[in-house]
Amino acid sequence: MNDGTGHPLSASMVRSIGGHTFDFARQVAVMAIVNRTPDSFFDRGSTFALDAAVTAALAAAEAGADWVDIGGVPFGRGPVVTVEEELARVIPLIEAIAARSDVVISVDTTNAAVARRSIAAGASVINDTSGLWDPDMASVVSDSAATLVLTHSLGEPRSEPVRPTYGDVTDEVVAFLRERIERALTAGVPYERLVVDPGHDLNKNTFHTLELTRRLEEVVAIGPPTLAAVSNKDFIGETLDRPRAERLEGTLAAAVFCIVKGARIVRMHDVPAAVAAVRMTESMMGFRPPVYARHNLEG
Predict the structure, then answer these.
(1) Rg (the chain; Cα; Å)
(2) Using CA atoms, how far apart are residues 200 and 230, in angstroms rounded to an integer?
(3) Of 34, 97, 236, 297, whose Cβ has the fewest other Cβ atoms within 10 Å?
(4) Distance between CA atoms of residues 34 and 294, nearest Å
(5) Are 175 and 167 in contact (CB under 8 A)?
(6) What secondary structure letter does DSSP report for 185?
(7) Measured CA distances, 49 to 73, 83, 100, 116, 187 (Å)
(8) Which tens digits make up the pLDDT trace of 212-224?
């Protein structure tokens, strides 16, 4: 049995990441979002200050987040952020989190130089939302013990978006991710250190994202654990006619749907709500026992 690219599927979905063990056959990791940017999509700079970002990251870990994903550059178009500025935003935050928590630290970056320094500072995951736009990214990760998230997106990072067109969005996303897996493997990244992300809303309109979500099991079938980054995205806002600040219910519904379809990492803003929804979903799927059980069992 193989993943569709000719590579054997692991007999186990157990992964060792950042000193923690995750059995993605029976476990879902909650990835909290903490951005050190003044113009981030959702929080609009509320965690741009270092102390605010550290506080948010530690609070997320305390609330049950398994991973904390930090970023110094938003995905979308905007002012140029130099490598030096991105490093100044993320490295002190990585070091501060690592000094005070054993939570898995992920860094959302498309730059190989930032990835290298982030791993040295204590990051265990590189979340590359550009799908290896930087030709050195895979080799940087291969020289470390870090996990690499391969995401479907089109075009140069921070570039002006084009109106996306697809013949079959799911087929094209799957083909793209399989090709990026091959590229990462060729660079020396072990298969068991790869994660795939279909890129909800990244260079996709709402119809594309809804279709991709309905068929998420086709992405899951590629083989590596699937990450679903759905939190507060525009496909939710446009579907429900909700502004960014009022998308929690839609976000939780989308995350649970993706988990049922096979996603095993969900990237979320509201950590307490996400943890509750994810743990409840795990129990309903038979992955996790109740914390306690007394109802109709006593007397």
Answers:
(1) 18
(2) 6
(3) 297
(4) 38
(5) no
(6) H
(7) 14, 18, 18, 23, 36
(8) 999 999 999 999 9
Q: Which fold has domain 14-284?
A: TIM Barrel (3.20.20)
Residue 137: closest CA among 119, 160, 154: 119
**Of 150, 180, 167, 161, which Cα lies nearest the Cα of 76?**
161
State the catalytic residues. 233, 267
62: left (phi over 0), alpha (psi -120 to 50) or beta: alpha
Residue 292 parent element (H or E): none
Give the CA count within 13 Å in the CB-facing half-sphere of 253.
12
pLDDT tens-place string over residues 59-102: 999 999 999 999 999 877 777 899 999 999 999 999 999 999 99
- Reduced to 3 DSSP states, what percent helix, strand and coil does the chain have, rounded to the nearest 5? 40, 15, 45
Q: Which two tokens stand for residue 262?
A: 């096979």
- pTM summary value: 0.93
Q: Which tokens go with 155?
A: 């075009």
CA distance 68 to 70: 6
For residues 218 and 174, is the Cβ–Cβ distance under 8 A?
Answer: yes
Task: Say if CB 150 and CB 131 are below 8 A apart.
Answer: yes
The pair of structure tokens assigned to 209 is 């994202």
User: Exposed/middle/buried for 175, CB within 10 Å: 0-12, 13-18, 19+?
Assistant: middle
The CA-based angle 170-202-86, given to 5 degrees, is 140
How many other CB atoms are there within 10 angstroms of residue 295's CB atom? 7
